[in-house]
Amino acid sequence: MPGPRRVLIVDDHATFRLGLGALLETVPGVAVIGEADSGHAAVTAAGALRPDVVVMDLHLPDIDGLTATERITRAHPEVGVLVLTMDDAEQTVFAAVRAGAGGYLLKTAGQEEIVRAIHAVADGEIIFGTPVATKVRALFAAAPGPAGDLSGLTGREREVLIMIVRGEGNAAIASRLVVSPKTVRNHITHIFRKLDVADRGEAIRRGRAAGLR
Questions:
Q1: CA-CA distance, 111 to 26, in Å (whole number)?
Q2: For the segment 130-145, what is each residue's pLDDT rounded down to a tens digit?
Q3: For 2-26, how does the pLDDT look when each residue is reduced to its tens digit (9 = 90+)?
Q4: In the beta sheet, which residues pair with residue 5?
Q5: CA dihedral 136, 11, 71, 64 (to 10 degrees)
Q6: What is the pLDDT of residues 55-75, one digit of tens each?
Q7: Cα-atom radius of gyration of the chain, to the nearest Å?
Q8: In whole angstroms, what is the distance from residue 3 CA to residue 6 CA?
Q9: 87-104 as b/e, with b when 16 or more CB fall inside 10 Å?
Q10: Helix, coil or strand: residue 36
Q11: If you ran DSSP here, which 8-state letter would residue 88 be given?
């Protein structure tokens, strides 16, 4: 059986950070492996500890949570980020998604919702709390990217998309890139989000429209 989801908590308010940590420690299948109280500390801890999920507040000293999220997901694509914040502004939700967050919850979320989101993000899925889900759908529906534009993809994401276009499955992609299947799933999640597509078929059509073969 897989081990517990390894979680790094990032929040500059010690009371909230410690309280969330204590709450998660009571949940089977979740293990809190570290805490950070700033953006720089979050990036450093994520690199050193390699958690499955970083639970990230957005309002942090030094660098903000959006910048920290982007740095973490770019350097360690196997690490998922779940934003947990009080900010439900549309532009902030959109910025978090663009930065690589796999989930976005408000701090009013209950224990069950937070735990469910941790597991979803660890599995490479995208999940949003009920108050922001409608905003996310509206944002992506209102601003789809050009059919042939792949400029938002990283080099590795482009490699993965090429293999998807060629019909290769996740296991084959993981073998060729010498990475874990979970890392491949996270890459694919990021690709789908950046291209605003819902499934592999749409991703293949977008890739072919951009000239990938």
A1: 11
A2: 777 776 666 555 555 5
A3: 689 999 999 999 999 999 999 999 9
A4: 30
A5: 80
A6: 999 999 899 999 999 999 999
A7: 17
A8: 8
A9: beeeebbbbbbebbbbbb
A10: strand
A11: -
How would you label 168-194 residue by residue, b for 16+ Cβ within 10 Å and e otherwise?
Answer: eebeebbeeeebeebbbbbbbbbbbbb
Tokens 């994401």 sit at which residue?
157
Distance CA 188, CA 123 (A): 12
Percent of the chain with pLDDT over 70: 92
144-203 confidence digits (pLDDT tens): 555 557 878 888 888 999 999 999 999 999 998 888 888 898 889 889 888 888 888 888
**Smallest Cα–Cα separation from 150: which of 205, 95, 94, 70?**
205
CA angle 200, 202, 204 (to 5 degrees): 70
DSSP structure class, residue 146: P
Structure tokens at 213: 């073969």
